[in-house]
Amino acid sequence: MEISIESCSPRNISDPFRKEGSEEEIPLQKQGLELKLSDHGPSHYSDNIIQSMNALEILRETVRILRFNSWGFMAIIALLICPVSAVVLSNVLVDESIVKSLSIRLMLVAKASGLPLRPLIKQSCQHFAEMVISSATSFPFYVTLLLLSKAAVVYSVDCTYSRKKFDASKFCVIIRKFWRKIASTYMWACVVIVGCITMLCVFLIAFCSVLSVLGFSPDISVYAAVMVGLVFSVIFANAIIICNIAIVISVLEDVSGTQAMLRSSILIKGQTHVGLLIFLGSTIGLAFVEGLFEHRVKTLSYGDGSSRMWEGPLLVIMYSFVVLIDSMMSAVFYFSCRSFSTETSDGEGNSILETMAISTETTPIQ
């Protein structure tokens, strides 16, 4: 008896992956991806439908799914994520003169608002300028390869939960039919992120200017700016979580754009702390690899620089793997929030996978 993903939580779905009386996990490939749930019926899962997973359980579920379809996810890394990671880490498209000019302008604005030009402020302006220019130059890769990789990861996770093989031809049909709405959701996510950063800059400049006019010392202005940054980081993290889940929703459900953002904000209610932990872990992992690449590849080299020949590609693969895990955890977090939420009705949020499975049976793929 088959049970749809809408009637069972991810934690319950993972249980049939084990043999009865044995702790050894059985890969889906060895069972032909045709595992059947035990004859408990939907009522067996309805008792646990409001159970949710914490961040550690989501990570374990992600690793389990990665093991079940390791070759597929490795293909996604090699074909879609690694090229973007190489461009982002190397900053090959970034013009250093533009970064320097923008950082000088930011330091002038900071000085005009009453902030002293200390090393912390200078480094912050330099890092912010590099981030802005790098994001702008890499945006074509983000909206094509990286977004396509996110859709492929979400589709693969959905296939795992629905006991279906990853069908490349069906995935291509889904992308052709629904790419516009997925891209629309991603663009709205970018608007939200840019809006949050702009709001921070405007509020920070205004707040520091007011403190300067009132006669407070530059040290107090620096401390106040740090506190504003800490508060903003929480708001920014929540915005990133909503945007990530909205992209997952745009792949799996028939909503997009602002509707996907709204549904995402409703869906993660009560589970925001889990999303914050996932975001924190991913951010630390990405920042760690970026720091290693900056220090080991861009700054240091041994002898004739031969160390860069193997450290660079290795760090690119590590960075791509962290990006993959982050995308997978967002997809698993979506299913966890969906099982936790009681707002989903019988006819709401049907998976595109199920819709396309019916349509491709009646219409041959061109």
From TrEMBL:
Transmembrane regions listed in the UniProt entry: 71-94, 139-157, 186-214, 220-252, 273-293, 313-335
Keywords: Membrane, Transmembrane, Transmembrane helix
Compositional bias per record (Polar residues), positions renumbered to this chain: 1-12
Chain spans, region Disordered: 1-21
Record's keyword annotation contains Transmembrane helix: yes
Protein name, entry field: Son of sevenless
Organism name: Lupinus angustifolius (Narrow-leaved blue lupine)
